[in-house]
Amino acid sequence: MPSQGAIVAVLAIAGLCSSFMFTLMVPIQSKLPELLNASRDDTAWVVTSTLLAAAVITPISGRLGDMYGKRRIVLVLVAVMVAGSVVAALSPGIVGIIVGRTLQGAIVGVVPLGISIMRDVLHEDRVDSAIAFMSATLGVGGALGLPISALITERSDWHLLFWMAAGLGVIVFGLVLWIVPVSVLRTAGRFDYLGAAGLAVGLIGILLAISRGNEWGWGSAPVLACGLGGLAVLLVWGWYELRIDEPLLDLRVAARPAVLLTNIASVAMGFSLFASNVVYPQMLELPVATGAGFGLSLLVASLIVMPSGLVMMLLSPIAGRIAFRTGPKLLLLLGAISLIAAYGFTLLFSSEVWHILVANILIGAGIGFGYASMPMLIMRSVPQSETGASNGLNALFRSLGTSTAAAVVGAVLATYTVDFEGVPVPTTTGFTLSLILGGTAAIVALVVALFIPRHRAPQERHPSLPE
């Protein structure tokens, strides 16, 4: 059997691949209408499609992993991502790019599945550190991927980004097949196809309303239909899940105080993280003449943001030791405090580039601690046979936070603009309000975290089968 260190390394590489998919298109997002000969409203689907696919696939793939083997589902998700990358790389038009990007969203499910695999195969003393390391890849992949994507975009054909993603996926597939052992724990029963369909429809409706509200209008018929319709579907879905013997997600487990409060904190933490991803790059890249920017190139700006991901990686062993000795709740509290400090610092000091650098380092510490704590809190509160589905649900709540931040902060920055050379650009007021929103979300995460119980929930026995 491969060493435990090798298993952790391979799963971490899979996590890097996952987070890289979300920074892949950042360097060319503003140029997509020109590159694809399509309207800006249409090219927004290049990003939205990945978001929707990730949100839907993550909790469903977690349940599939619990039932049919976590490594097997990881391999399927990676293969789907590779197929999507090839489709996008070969597509000159927008339809193929959107299809490819939708398939690429499948890779996001490997992070909660990888964390669940760690619980299954690693020695108990190593689990917390390994989870912290895996969680750090969510920031490191984006931090490293952004300058790499910017460099490729500036020097070569932008389709090379997709070929690079495909190559990375092939490497990950081979490493997982070679190194990661077969999961020995399975949950017996049948897969809840109706529940999966209901969850998918409900989530897509709500996320469409959130992600496209700025373009369609928050009071428009499509947004209201998607949002209210999605909410209604999820309410019916929840009623159905509570009344069947083998649900997609055990909502009674999800309602345990430790699980429920962790998921609520995840929404706030996700909002706080993505608010920084929206605000800081724009502050760095806007022309100095606007009065709100530093006039840096995309490549240089990405290098200023990159240390946040590196800090996450450097702090992962510390996070593991803190969790092992005192429990993961302290990590979540430290993460929220660091995020509050980051936004507070920026509100007081934002006149120099190094101010933004310091803020991003604090953001990295906050997300490194916070994201490491969440799966630990979840896994201490659910049966081992439910870890895949429960971690997938937690990842979904983080995605809801990031999606909401993208919409809300985007709306704020679009509202407070000034004309610069014929183009509306955000003002200092818009950035200030966005920073206040990000800091407020971090305060919410801190308050919620204070009420999370410290004790482990009793681990009831579930029927299981060897793989």
From TrEMBL:
| Protein name stated in the entry | Multidrug resistance protein 3
Report which gene this protein is encoded by.
bmr3_1
Could you list this entry's UniProt keywords, alphabetically sorted. Membrane, Transmembrane, Transmembrane helix, Transport
Record's subcellular location:
Cell membrane
Which residue intervals define the domain Major facilitator superfamily (MFS) profile in the entry? 7-456
Q: Which PROSITE patterns match?
A: MFS
**Entry GO MF terms:** transmembrane transporter activity
One GO CC term, this protein: plasma membrane
Q: Write down the InterPro entries for this protein, in alphabetical order.
A: MFS, MFS_dom, MFS_trans_sf
Q: Which residues cross the membrane?
A: 7-28, 43-61, 73-91, 97-118, 130-152, 158-179, 191-210, 216-237, 258-280, 292-318, 330-348, 354-374, 395-418, 430-452
The way it spans or sits in the membrane comes to:
Multi-pass membrane protein
